[in-house]
Design goal:
By secondary structure, this protein is an alpha+beta fold. Strand 2, helix 2 and strand 3 form a beta-alpha-beta unit. The two termini are about 30 Å apart. About 10% of the residues have low confidence.
């Protein structure tokens, strides 16, 4: 979903032209091209991965239909990465209305409940058509999840720790110049998305290439 396209109706209508396109912008077997398939940042973004490891970031939004479609593919790719690649998700905020969803993700992460509840949030929104955009809706959803103690979830959701993570997530989003979701950043140096690479399948191929470049220094 693009930065200015906040309604699901608008994003659904534009789906064919956005981040889940079907054709790659580079020929199979050819190397991805800087400036076309990916962007090299003018100023490096911060990374949290330790020295000797390559950090890969997926920028997402729970209410983005493209992120919902991409999630199983991304999850499978992430699980197949070697030990020297650190993969993490970062929920975006294009305006203040996105913050509750950011807090939802970091509350689940803080409680060690990303698996299986991360995928369940996507299902609740895109399959069950629940609205999880406001805190009261999120709390009502959390109360129905057997894996969660709703009091502990609410405490984590409103914690200074989660507030700090939300702030850092938005700073990282700006540092990478994120214009839509899903999109990916590599090593604090490179950014790509479906618009650049041509499809999200191609994005993962571009990211593999960028991980290789970053590992070489």
């Amino acid at each position: 979903m693009k930065r200015r396209e906040f309604s699901l109706a608008a994003s659904a209508a534009a789906a064919g032209a956005l981040t889940l396109g079907t054709s790659s912008s580079w020929a199979q077997g050819a190397a991805p091209r800087e400036g076309k398939d990916y962007i090299k940042l003018g100023k490096p973004a911060s990374v949290s991965a330790p020295a000797g490891k390559v950090e890969v970031v997926e920028f997402f939004w729970y209410s983005c239909p493209h992120c919902n479609v991409f999630e199983p593919q991304f999850e499978a790719w992430a699980k197949g990465q070697p030990a020297d690649v650190v993969v993490r998700r970062v929920p975006v905020a294009f305006n203040a209305s996105f913050v509750p969803a950011q807090k939802l993700y970091y509350a689940l992460e803080g409680l060690g409940k990303i698996e299986p509840l991360h995928a369940r949030v996507f299902r609740a929104i895109h399959v069950e058509r629940q609205k999880l955009a406001k805190e009261e809706d999120i709390m009502a959803w959390a109360a129905k999840q057997p894996e969660l103690d709703v009091a502990k979830f609410k405490e984590m959701y409103n914690s200074f720790s989660v507030a700090g993570q939300v702030r850092r997530a938005t700073q990282l989003q700006e540092a990478y110049g994120v214009e839509g979701t899903p999109s990916m950043g590599v090593a604090g140096r490179y950014y790509t998305d479906g618009t650049h690479a041509g499809s999200m399948q191609a994005v993962l191929q571009v990211v593999n290439h960028l991980v290789g470049l970053s590992a070489k220094g």
